[in-house]
């Protein structure tokens, strides 16, 4: 009798806990959408800012007269305000509501009917769903905070690499430092595993790169990929690196083959590897322990 009541008490307690977790997740979803809308700006503008500064540095180094383009000088994440790339009409605040505006505008500019890139609602939705999921999974905790930053940075890197074939050091390196910092107190893994993870992440792809280059004379991937894998190793330790590499290579190969079959990409055009690394890294941070656990239990370990 006593056991029964305490059991049903525990059941109602856990039901209440999952209800409040669901409520938190629902509250977090619109917040994730707004972050996604900011990530869209980062994805579009940050590479342009980088290119402008590289151009200025090159002109400076070569002693060339700088191109007098005032627009380049003033580009930042907040200025100028967003405009339609087709007709230059400023985008009104009520046309900037994540996902909803895209649906209401039917994916077109109101003034000139230039199609709005599907990237905008996709990135917003991805950010919204991932944010809600993490809050549901980890509640309002420090771990959840770290996971959210990790997720948002990976979404930005994915978008930038997809568009520009570029993983900026200005984003991958701080991600690496933040992973080491989080593991100073062992948030995800003990610090020694995180340090070895960063080291092994970088060196493993670095060796593959040089082996590939020595054999074929071609460059199969970029240095940004090494730094991203180093960052992932810093967050979740060296034990997760094989899983990340297997997952990303498998999905990357699958997408590449489907692309070739559908003739949507030329054989010679290199494919950005960063998005696959980022996706595999995210899966490994959230479910890596479960995946490795069930894999090892197959062998009775
Ligand atoms: Zn327009």
Describe this protein's structure.
It is a single chain. The chain is mainly alpha-helical. The chain has 2 domains: 24-140, no CATH class; 141-301, no CATH class. The protein has helices spanning 2-62, 70-74, 100-104, 119-138, 142-164, 169-182, 191-216, 223-236, 241-261, 274-298. Residues 84, 86-87, 89, 109, 111-112, 114 line the site of zinc ion.
Query: H/E series, N to C?
Result: HHHHHHHHHH
Q: In percent, how much strand structure appears in the residues?
A: under 5%
Low-confidence stretches: none
Mean pLDDT, rounded to whole units?
Answer: 87
Number of helices: 10
Count of discrete structural domains: 2
Distance between the termini: 40 Å
- Helical content band: over 70%
Structure ligands: zinc ion
Largest sheet composition:
none
Structural class: mainly alpha
Question: What is the number of beta strands?
Answer: 0
Tell the overall outline: globular
Distinctive features:
single chain; globular; 0% strand; 301 residues; mainly alpha; binds zinc ion
Concise synopsis of the structure shown:
This protein is mainly alpha-helical and 301 residues long. The protein is 71% helix and 0% strand.
Give the topology:
Elements: H1 2-62, H2 70-74, H3 100-104, H4 119-138, H5 142-164, H6 169-182, H7 191-216, H8 223-236, H9 241-261, H10 274-298
The structure holds zinc ion.
Zinc ion binds next to loops.
